[in-house]
Amino acid sequence: MSDVAGRDPEAVSRFVERFAAQLVEAGLARMPARVFAALLASDSGALTSAELSRQLQVSPAGVSGAVRYLSQVHMLSREREPGSRRERYRVHSDQWYQALTNREAIIKRWEDALREGVASLGAETPAGHRLAETLAFFEFIEKDVAEMMERWQVRRAELFGDER
Amino acid sequence: MSDVAGRDPEAVSRFVERFAAQLVEAGLARMPARVFAALLASDSGALTSAELSRQLQVSPAGVSGAVRYLSQVHMLSREREPGSRRERYRVHSDQWYQALTNREAIIKRWEDALREGVASLGAETPAGHRLAETLAFFEFIEKDVAEMMERWQVRRAELFGDER
DNA sequence: CCTTAACTTCACAAATTTCTGAAAGAAGCG
DNA sequence: CGCTTCTTTCAGAAATTTGTGAAGTTAAGG
Questions:
Q1: pLDDT, tens only, A16-28
Q2: What is the torsion angle, in degrees rounded to the nearest 10, for the CA atoms of residue B41, residue B45, residue B46 and residue B49?
Q3: Which of A103, A121, A136 faces B15 most closely, judged by CB atoms?
Q4: Where in chain A does DSSP place strands (E)?
Q5: CA B37, A119, B43: angle at the middle one, nearest 5?
Q6: Number of H helices, E strands in chain B
Q7: Are the beta carbons of A156 and B144 separated by less than 8 Å?
Q8: Which one, A35, A58, A89, B156, has least CB within 10 Å?
Q9: Distance CA A8, CA A34 (A)
């Protein structure tokens, strides 16, 4: 036990469900959204499968699936507690900001599809032009987002001190 | 007729389905994704309900639903052809770049949920700190994305000339 | 006004997704 | 090694989402 003591479980749950609902609206599946929100709202920033299962009223199987997905998209990392078969799932702020903006893999595939479209519809056609411009937009975004994240690191240090 | 003549419908369809698949993966519903992709790939940048229905092999009802959604999230605009009950649906590049980045409404609601979380979990708790930092991140993003779009306008003019 | 073309709404069938319980699979510990 | 604890996998039930046909609405054009 670690996290729950001394906190109002009602308040936690209210936040978790509300924030998860927003994530769902943005396209994340429900269970991963709830798991992620629960981690964000935990004091330690890490919870075990059992804790998640109890807090969210969900079967261990459900947690397992959600966690698998979230770690695939780098929104959490798994850690093994030394000398125990319990696993903890943790959010690293850095990591998840990256994941959020770092749609890099996705953007890359969009770009591929667009390049192919330009080629097959003809670069000189009106549609080809539109696709080419969209492609240029993505290429621009890709670069600029990376720079934005660097600016954020600076800003964060300003706001919260350099408590890396 | 306008768009299809002289183009390889196969090639168009291939692009539409591939690009739509990427949009789906990013969280858009299937039908809106296909409609949107078809518009992007059209020479005129605008299609009627009937054209979409035929090209995508989908009932008018399906098109109607997709179009309603897309116009709600500002990814297309509707225009009435003067003196006809036909309606055309159009992508404006500007508009859709905005829509893509302008998750503004979404971000705002995230921020609301986070602010509430900070308040109810306590700004001095570890969880409260984490939420506060996440909130700061979103506030930063929100501002910086707006600036990024301005930079894109400049870049676009460079690349394509000022063919507003 | 009446007809007809174009789009929308709605109830429902079909397909898909989500979550569970049960069983199997790892890994610490004696 | 075997026991125990924790996690994962998997088949299927339940819930949700998606797209359709049919009926309804709106507005142009006679």
A1: 999 999 999 888 9
A2: 10
A3: A121
A4: 46-48, 77-80, 87-90
A5: 45
A6: 7, 3
A7: no
A8: A58
A9: 18
